[in-house]
Amino acid sequence: MNPLLSLRRTGRGGVLGERNFRLFLFGYGTSLVGSAMVPIALTFAVLNEGRGTSVVGYVLAAETIPLVALLLAGGVLADRFERRAMMLAADLARLVSEGLLAALLLTGTPPLWVLMALAGVLGAGQALFNPAMSALVTELVLADRLQQANGLRSVATSTAQILGPSLAGVIVAVGGPGWAIAIDAATYAVSAVCLLALDLATRAPADQASMLRQLVAGWNEFRSRTWLWLIVAQFALVNALAFVPLMVLGAVVARDRLGGAAAWGAILAAFGVGSILGGLAALRLRPRRPLVTATLGAAAFALPPLLTALPADTALIAGAAGAAGIGLSIFNTLWVTTLQRKVPAVALSRVSAYDNFGSVAFVPLGYILVAPLAGTFGVRGTLFLGAAIVVATSAIVLTSRSVRMLSVTDLMPPRGPGRLSPQPSPPPGQTPPRAPARPSRPHSPNPGQTSPRTIAIRRSSTAPRLTLMPSCSYSLVTQGRSPRIATAVRSESSRSTYMSPK
What's the CATH code of the domain at 348? Predict the structure, then answer.
């Protein structure tokens, strides 16, 4: 076989050697940059018309509310229908809404209700896109390269969170917010074209039960895994009571004690750079206990609110923010990879939707509570409280046996198109190794009578069982203490800009 053709088909050049993933990453990364421009563009679109800061809050809330409200429905639809189709629909809806908003801003002053309605389309599109995307990645890459793929997604997200606002500031200053919104619309077109170019296998027909029953089935999958709901509950608290106070009160501390906006900008930039470095580090990280490593990485987020509350100097807080960015990127990569490998493919979008919903649903409540908390405990006390919540919830998570005992050997490849990397072909003239033969059943001494030895084999938990696995080589895998022989066949198929700790 032509080695170049073999490389293209199997992706032996790494995860970026797989054409489908390259297309996805380019389109997704481009749209992330555009999405990161939107908050600044919308803010100045409102302020330039003489409207107050409260109106800015209304417009941004109009985007967030549909996102939270439709996430669970988006997960059900993504498991019910073709995931690429769901993502295309979301991209095209946002392309139209952003294109219309850009035209209105460039030609006049749109009414407030129009701004809010079109911002709502953005949130609804994200609610449909994100659950489908989490599951689609398992169809794009080889199963043992999922962590690499998720690491590169993390790098793309972090890079976009740095580039997007910077580009938006320049474009708004030079041409106005309408042009920034127009560029965002174009990025959705790029994403849609890349999705259309993917070469995907046909999915098996989905369960046609009612949406309510599918939602309940997804909830059962979610709640049946202690490690899953425990970590989602942790981040519901961390996002609302640690991340939100840091974003709001950190700026206040920077203004009053660190020298102003430049200091706060340097701290946020350090967080972004750390996030990129963490994503790159996660490409090769292979911890034996992935959720333990992930939780320790998440615990690093206690450092920025702690040092901001002291307050330390800007350089030290920026260093802590960089360390937190590294830890959270490693957490995100290991967390998403664990979800993709431990949750059945048919329910992955719904479980991802419950994960996203639990992580962001309490963020609006956090923004509501931050002022009363600061009034009660003071700015420093509220930041100390946030740091304590990060440490305490991380410690609670680590006490869970399901978190501590989940090892990398438990992360079996998902069923379906995702597959293991093919093993090298044997040299010419040699035959591939064969799996050990299954022991034959001992002969019964009398017809119709079962020998004691036969009974022992039948009841033994260590008896070999033949299992079909998606690979192209023979392998021996282990479940608990019971080894089993796994023959294998080759599968011919190949395929949030919300800034928070998770």
Answer: 1.20.1250.20
Burial of residue 288 (number of CB atoms within 10 Å: 0-12, 13-18, 19+): exposed
Give the strand order in the sheet containing 475-479: 467-470, 482-489, 475-479
Q: What is the rounded distance in angstroms from the CA atom of residue 179 to the CA atom of residue 121?
A: 19
For residues 207 and 323, the model is more confident at 323
Residue 479's beta-bridge partner residues? 482
200 close to 416: Cβ distance less than 8 angstroms: no
> Which residues, 6+ apart, have CB-to-CB distance to 221 below 8 Å?
343, 344, 347, 350, 351
- Entry pTM: 0.73
Paired with 477 in beta bridges are: 484
The verdict on whether omega for the bond into residue 501 sits within 30 degrees of 0, i.e. cis, is: no
pLDDT for 381: 94
Query: Which residue range forms the structural domain that includes residue 381?
Result: 224-414
- Please check whether residue 359 is in contact with residue 74, taking contact to mean a CB–CB distance below 8 angstroms: no
Are 135 and 188 in a shared domain? Answer: yes
Identify the sign of the CA torsion 259, 260, 262, 267: positive
Give yes or no: residues 187 and 240 share one domain: no
Three-class DSSP category at 461 = coil
Counting the structural domains of the chain, the total is 3
DSSP string of 206-228? PP-S-HHHHHHHHHHHHHT-HHH
Tens-digit pLDDT profile for residues 441-470: 444 444 444 444 333 333 333 333 333 333
Whole-angstrom distance, CA of residue 160 vs CA of residue 149: 17
| Whether residue 275 sits in one domain with residue 169 | no
| Percentage of residues of the chain with pLDDT beyond 90 | 46
Distance between CA atoms of residues 83 and 133, nearest Å = 7
